[in-house]
Design goal:
The chain has 410 residues and is an alpha+beta fold. It has helices at 2-5, 11-21, 39-54, 98-114, 140-146, 151-156, 165-171, 198-202, 240-257, 293-314, 333-345, 360-364, 391-409; strands spanning 26-27, 31-32, 58-61, 67-71, 79-85, 122-127, 185-193, 206-212, 214-223, 227-228, 262-271, 277-278, 281-290, 317-326, 329-330, 350-355, 370-375. A hairpin with a 5-residue loop joins β3 (58-61) and β4.
Length: 410
């Protein structure tokens, strides 16, 4: 279809829509505060629904509040879907999530203008509560869509302000008549800002996302014995702080030794935490991430062996608890190839990469073949009012989205 090959989205129009959406929950510094299921979040969803109606899309809203706009195909077939989310963290920017939803609507508007008909229907979704900052779990809307979380269980969740998801859904009229997951989906593509510094540092326009890192959070409680810092000889100590410090060192070593590994000790509390007292107890967390499940498990095993070993030598007892265990997700290779081909054909610089953050696309990868397109984040800053992605990069990302979707819609 040679005419559709020459199609490009309207960058200035997409920027205007991003500005319009950023008015809902706008905060000082150009950021957005749109916590899930709140009033500003609902106003943003109403804005998106109006845009969908203006584009002639069929509206589906399910009982958890996910919003879908569907453009008919020539045949009644599963939907080729794209989208993201419209909720933000309390100190959010105007690009995280919004770029994927509005980028998708821009693609459909471009197809409408050019009079391009596709075999499969094309759709845009705005999933509820991707961030999870107000109500856990994050990626709630896509998890409910996938069937991993029931609407009833999601509604019972109590947020940081003591209110429930269900109470907010009812108060702000979120629920629609569709049953979550009933819409047949052929594949899902999510355009998103990178939220990290890699594309900018490598001076690339498009990130071809191959997968999302798995995460393990392990908390260690180390119990030794308190003692006087002057009177107790070193070789007689059971120093919990010493074992904690060695663990921090080892986490860095693991990151350097295991391919694709990140290991972070972000929290450490010593007790009694006094200048001249050997610590009796240390509580620390290790955040382990890797896109390879085998390497992630091996890193966890090596870390635990190390901690047990050094604690044993020091005479410190170890309690270990895995608090988060999210498996890595690798996207469908043919979808990833399609994103890469679109970037290449359009003449954009690109690189293959792994997402460091979680996204609805990793949940949707359990429903249908899925993929993601990243565009650069200035300074790698996100979840912050200073979050910024350049208009030409967002335009490029939406063009890659357009041609990836066309590839699967025919
Ligand atoms: Zn996001």
């Amino acid at each position: 279809m040679p005419t559709s090959k020459r199609l490009r989205i309207n960058g200035p129009r997409l920027q205007r829509n991003l500005e319009d959406l950023a008015r809902f929950g706008a905060i000082a510094g150009g950021g957005v505060c749109r916590p899930a299921f709140g009033r500003a979040d609902k106003e943003a969803r109403d804005f998106l629904e109006d845009r969908m109606r203006a584009l002639g899309l069929a509206i589906h809203i399910d009982s958890i509040g996910n919003l879908f706009g569907i453009r008919n195909g020539r045949e009644s077939k599963p939907v080729v879907l794209c989208g993201s989310h419209a909720d933000t963290v309390g100190t959010g920017g105007r690009f995280d999530g919004s770029v994927g939803v509005l980028g998708g609507l821009e693609v459909l508007e471009t197809l409408n203008e050019a009079g391009v008909a596709t075999r499969h229907p094309l759709g845009v979704v705005s999933f509820v509560n991707e961030e999870g900052a107000r109500f856990t779990p994050d990626m709630m809307g896509s998890l409910v869509f996938r069937g991993d979380l029931s609407v009833e269980a999601a509604r019972r969740m109590v947020g940081i302000d003591g209110t429930t998801v269900g109470g907010n859904i009812d108060e702000n009229c979120y629920a629609g008549p569709s049953t979550p997951g009933e819409l047949p989906v052929r594949c899902y593509v999510e355009l998103h800002i990178e939220q990290g510094p890699v594309l900018e540092r490598d001076n690339r326009t498009i990130g071809v996302v191959e997968g999302v890192q798995g995460i393990k959070w392990i908390s260690f409680t180390l119990r030794g014995a308190t003692a006087h810092a002057g009177a107790m000889p070193i070789h007689l100590r059971h120093d919990a702080a010493y074992v904690a410090g060695a663990t921090i060192q080892y986490a860095r070593q693991l990151s350097l030794q295991v391919d694709g590994q990140r290991a972070t000790v972000g929290s450490l509390v010593l007790s009694p935490n006094l200048v001249n007292v050997v610590a009796e107890e240390a509580r620390l967390t290790v955040d382990l991430r890797n896109a390879d499940p085998g390497r992630l498990s091996a890193a966890e095993e090596r870390l635990s062996l190390f901690v047990n070993d050094i604690a044993g030598t020091e005479g410190v007892r170890v309690e270990r608890e895995v608090r988060v265990d999210v498996a890595p997700v690798m996207f469908d290779p043919s979808m990833v190839d399609a994103v890469e081909n679109a970037a290449k054909t359009l003449g954009y610089s690109y690189m293959r990469m792994i997402s460091g953050a979680g996204h609805d696309a990793q949940v949707m990868a359990g429903v249908c073949p899925a993929a993601m397109i990243f565009v650069p984040s200035r300074g790698g800053i996100s979840h912050n009012v200073a979050e910024y992605s350049a208009p030409e990069h967002i335009e490029a990302g939406a063009n890659v989205l357009l041609h990836t979707l066309l590839r699967f819609a025919d």
